[in-house]
Design goal:
Blueprint (H helix, E strand, L loop, with lengths): L2 H25 L6 E4 L11 E4 L5 E4 L2 E3 L2 E2 L3 E5 L4 E4 L11 E4 L5 E4 L12 E5 L4 E5 L10 E4 L5 E4 L2 E3 L2 E3 L3 E5 L4 E5 L10 E4 L5 E4 L2 E3 L6 E2 L3 E5 L4 E4 L11 E4 L5 E4 L2 E2 L5 E2 L3 E5 L4 E4 L14 E3 L5 E3 L7 E4 L4 E4 L12 E4 L5 E4 L14 E5 L1
Antiparallel strand pairs: 1-36, 2-3, 3-6, 4-5, 6-7, 8-9, 9-10, 10-11, 12-13, 13-16, 14-15, 16-17, 18-19, 19-22, 20-21, 22-23, 24-25, 25-28, 26-27, 28-29, 30-31, 31-32, 32-33, 34-35, 35-36
């Protein structure tokens, strides 16, 4: 091929690339979707658990109807009918409990608080086949507002939380083995943490971030620190800190292996609500600044949903959900009516790709939880 032909081919290649870029720029629209009301839950609740079952239904359990009124009720959402139906009651009232679907399809519900002043060390197992809760083994420590993460080998890491209500934050961690139905100690975190968050990374390690570590509200110490748990060694390792202290924030694992840390609050009960986000890169074990959300958000620990295509629905923490778009790393508001209950609500990705949003409380905290359910649809 002579020199003029090569120049012509190069020019054609560049022209084609520019045309493709122009077409892509014109036709790409950020994915937002919309929310619409679905069947009403049977109870108003916040700080509850929501667990997707193997058959596509969702178990909603426990929580509080309002401050001072703890719940032992549970219900099932059926996406085929759009309705909620009651289950048998749990064995204990629980708010701020931890729930994980086990490889068997059963659900472990651990700890939480019942209004007695001390957190619970009891657990129970929900069996969808029998629609019944049965006693599980006791944890080694009482815990509420901790984290429970399913590990790749089928065991469950339970870490941190509070031994008494919102007080006595814990650094300890333990492992639940569903095969042996036992709890055993594993390495402790470097920092006691309550109202923090965690996510399983692609390599099987677990990232934990932020939380309250000491002191009493409204003057509690809010953490910027973070650490990773390695199931192979049973140890936590400190990473570089986040850019700002956060608690009651959201977290999501992105398709590229990074973790997205979302909103939260710093400075105690009346501290600043955050619209900032940041990325954690497991390859460098460090954080970098992420895009700003449209709205400041907190109390959204379970109000985040990662969609199958990598988008992240930020459903809790403010009265209008928004979507993180991984293509251009921006947040876009979701269309639909504003939500009243948006604090300590839950967001669960269903098998068809829609997202179920359940209850929470909103602007009128003393009125308690709002009895509501919404579906996000593309």
């Amino acid at each position: 091929m002579d020199r003029r032909a090569k120049i012509g081919l190069s020019a054609l290649t560049i022209f084609a690339a520019l045309v493709l870029l122009a077409v892509t720029t014109r036709t790409y629209a950020p994915k937002t979707g919309s929310i619409a009301s679905t069947g009403a839950p049977r109870a108003a609740r916040f700080s509850h658990t929501a667990t997707l079952l193997s058959d596509g239904r969702v178990l909603i359990a426990g929580g509080m109807e309002r401050n001072g009124y703890w719940l032992d009720s549970a219900e099932i959402y059926n996406p085929e009918t759009g309705h909620f139906s009651p289950t048998r009651k749990m064995l204990s009232r629980r708010a701020g409990a931890m729930a994980v679907r086990l490889p068997s399809g059963k659900v472990l519900i651990a700890g939480g608080s019942d209004g007695s002043g001390s957190s619970l060390r009891t657990t129970e197992i929900y069996d969808p086949a029998g629609n019944v809760f049965t006693p599980g083994p006791n944890m080694l420590s009482p815990r509420s507002h901790g984290v429970a993460i399913l590990l790749k080998d089928g065991r469950v890491l339970i870490a941190g939380g509070c031994a008494q209500g919102d007080d006595q934050r814990l650094a300890s961690a333990e492992i639940y083995d569903p095969a042996a139905q036992t709890f055993s100690w594993t390495g402790s975190m470097h920092v006691p943490r309550g109202a923090f968050n965690a996510v399983a990374l692609a390599d099987g390690k677990v990232l934990v971030t932020g939380g309250m570590s000491s002191g009493q509200l409204p003057d509690a110490t809010i953490e910027a620190s973070a650490e990773t748990y390695d199931p192979a060694t049973g140890r936590f390792t400190l990473t570089s800190p986040m850019s700002v202290p956060r608690y009651k924030h959201g977290m999501a694992l992105l398709k590229d292996g990074r973790a997205l840390i979302i909103g939260g609050q710093n400075g105690g009960a009346f501290g600043q609500r955050l619209s900032s986000t940041e990325f954690f890169d497991p390859e460098t074990s460090s954080f970098s600044r992420g895009p700003e959300m449209k709205y400041p958000r907190f109390k959204l620990i379970q109000g985040i949903a990662v969609l199958g295509d990598g988008h992240v629905l930020v459903a809790g923490g403010a009265d209008q959900p928004e979507m993180y778009d991984p293509h251009n790393e921006t947040f876009v508001p979701v269309s639909g009516p504003k939500i009243d209950g948006y604090l300590f609500s839950t967001a669960t990705v269903l098998d068809d790709g829609t997202v179920l949003l359940v209850d929470g409380y909103g602007k009128h905290a003393t009125a308690g939880a709002v009895r509501q359910a919404w579906l996000w649809q593309p």
